[in-house]
């Protein structure tokens, strides 16, 4: 196997036993990038020299016994997650390129854990598209089919994960921007509980999370990035994490997963299969206000070594109630995924749509006036550089009344209430991520209509507004060979429950040879 394809846990185990060096690994990743990047355009601000220097420092720390929890692991972060010294263009040529003064909280935690951040990843115009279309970056394409989109707005992160640019990629999500591209690229994409990973520039529904090839790597990345930061007033408190000096590393989830390990204290080389803990009982306990939250690691304690999901109540949502119709191949794939969970003991309960047309349209109006306000503040010469489809979308904002805007804003709470109602009687919600497979790469939207830009997010956006964690799992391929993903949403703070369930469903096989 190419070193670029190894998981983070495999790399850490190999660094620990000295069978691999971080320098060897970053060289393999950079060679993969050199081969594939001219075709998929996933990266921004690639820094080979800086990456090799960081890998050499990591090699020294492993030799000295001071390695951190992700020491020497190649990582990318989305371009709108600030890294010191690199401009943050937000996917648009309309942005002034001013170097960031400091690392954003997530980037800082990754560096503190020894991760080798070797590049940023691309995003579309202002992050407002579920595609790789940008006036700043080259068009990002799907590694499974270069004629198709990687999705967005974490376009480059998903493409990089599928292409094997190292094991961990970090994106952002305000309506599905981690999960949609993860689903279309066949990888794991976790939108955590709101506030679990500090954003730095918080906004309603915005979250940061990992995109990886395995649930275990997503759990590891989540653990490292989790924690309070004063730059984000919505970030959640960080419980103390005991030292984990074991040379083999503790099982993932065996210590409080709500915090990042102290610098140099963790050697997380491997863990048990996700899905081995007491998922149903823990999820129900947490949703009822009990102590089953995976902040204390109880979900992966090995008590369900047989992988049983006995009694887990899974709501099956096949119809979002609004937006594009669901492709029959997608419906069949999610129905089959439900059967897999049912065979492991879960109770599958089909449910009606969670959100309504009024909710989705109201949110569209609110986002439109927000974006119109931001763009109107630009000098004319910079406004002219904004993607035409975005300018067309915001042009109708002048017709909105104060009542329209207030009603639109209120739909965020309406969505949250609707999701919370489902979790009063269920431990998880299984659904498609998107109603369709990846659409043509050149399109800004699946509809190709700026007046209807959000017809594909009805399965994903409710959990941004309700703050619940939700992850993806690849469960099938279409008749044309495109990935089909399932979404698993769970109660607040049960992020590892979602990943454990994803582990029951996630299938990969051979990764794309571009």
UniProtKB/TrEMBL annotation:
Pfam families named among the record's database cross-references: Amidase (PF01425)
Domain Amidase: 24-245, 307-498
EC number: 6.3.5.6, 6.3.5.7
Keyword Ligase listed: yes
Keywords of the record: Ligase, Transferase
Record carries keyword Cell inner membrane: no
Coiled coil residues, start to end: none
InterPro entries noted in UniProt: Amidase, Amidase_dom, AS_sf
Signal peptide (from-to): none
Broad EC category: ligase
Domain of life from the UniProt record: Bacteria
Positions of the UniProt region annotated as Disordered: 229-294
Protein name in UniProt: Aspartyl-tRNA(Asn)/glutamyl-tRNA(Gln) amidotransferase subunit A
Organism: Kribbella solani
């Amino acid at each position: 196997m190419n070193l670029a394809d190894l998981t983070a846990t495999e790399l850490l185990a190999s660094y620990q036993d000295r069978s691999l060096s971080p320098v060897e690994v970053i060289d393999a990743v950079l060679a993969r990038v050199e081969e594939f990047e001219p075709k998929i355009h996933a990266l921004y601000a690639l820094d080979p020299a800086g990456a090799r220097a960081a890998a050499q420092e990591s090699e020294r720390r492993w030799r000295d016994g001071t390695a951190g929890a992700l020491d020497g692991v190649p990582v990318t972060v989305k371009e709108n997650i600030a890294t010191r010294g690199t401009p943050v263009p937000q996917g648009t040529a309309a942005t002034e390129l001013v170097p960031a003064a400091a690392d954003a909280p997530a980037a800082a935690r990754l560096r503190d854990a020894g991760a080798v951040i070797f590049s940023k990843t691309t995003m579309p115009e202002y992050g407002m598209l579920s595609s790789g279309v940008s006036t700043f970056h080259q068009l990002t394409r799907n590694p499974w089919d270069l004629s198709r989109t990687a999705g967005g707005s974490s376009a480059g992160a998903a493409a990089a994960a599928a292409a094997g640019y190292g094991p961990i990629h970090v994106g952002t999500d305000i309506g599905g921007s981690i999960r949609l591209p993860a689903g279309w690229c066949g990888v794991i994409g976790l939108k955590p509980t709101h506030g679990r990973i500090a954003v730095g520039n918080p906004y309603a529904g915005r979250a940061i999370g990992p995109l990886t090839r395995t649930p275990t790597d997503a759990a590891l990345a989540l653990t490292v990035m989790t924690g309070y930061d004063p730059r984000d007033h919505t970030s959640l408190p960080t419980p103390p994490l005991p030292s984990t000096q074991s040379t083999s590393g503790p099982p993932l989830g065996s210590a409080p997963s709500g915090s990042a390990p102290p610098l140099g204290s963790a050697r997380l080389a491997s863990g048990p299969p996700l899905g081995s803990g007491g998922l149903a009982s823990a999820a129900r306990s947490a949703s009822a206000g009990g102590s089953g939250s995976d902040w204390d690691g109880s979900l992966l304690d090995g008590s369900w070594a047989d992988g049983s999901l006995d009694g887990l109540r899974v709501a099956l949502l096949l119809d979002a109630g609004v937006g594009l119709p669901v492709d029959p191949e997608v419906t069949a794939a999610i129905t089959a995924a439900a059967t897999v969970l049912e065979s492991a003991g879960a109770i599958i309960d089909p449910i009606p749509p969670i959100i309504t047309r009024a909710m989705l349209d109201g949110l569209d109006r609110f986002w439109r006036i927000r974006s119109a306000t931001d763009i109107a503040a630009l000098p004319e010469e910079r406004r002219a550089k904004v993607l035409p489809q975005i300018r067309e979308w915001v042009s109708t904002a002048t017709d909105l009344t104060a009542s329209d805007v207030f009603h639109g804003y209120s739909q965020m709470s309406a969505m949250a209430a609707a999701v919370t109602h489902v979790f009063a009687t269920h431990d998880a919600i299984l659904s498609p991520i998107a109603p369709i497979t990846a659409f043509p790469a050149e399109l800004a939207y699946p509809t190709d209509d700026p007046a209807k830009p959000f017809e594909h997010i009805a399965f994903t956006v409710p959990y941004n507004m309700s703050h619940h964690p939700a992850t993806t799992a690849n469960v099938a391929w279409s008749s044309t060979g495109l990935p089909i993903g399932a979404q698993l949403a769970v109660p607040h703070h049960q992020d590892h429950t979602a990943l454990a369930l994803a582990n029951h469903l996630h299938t990969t096989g051979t990764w794309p040879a571009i």
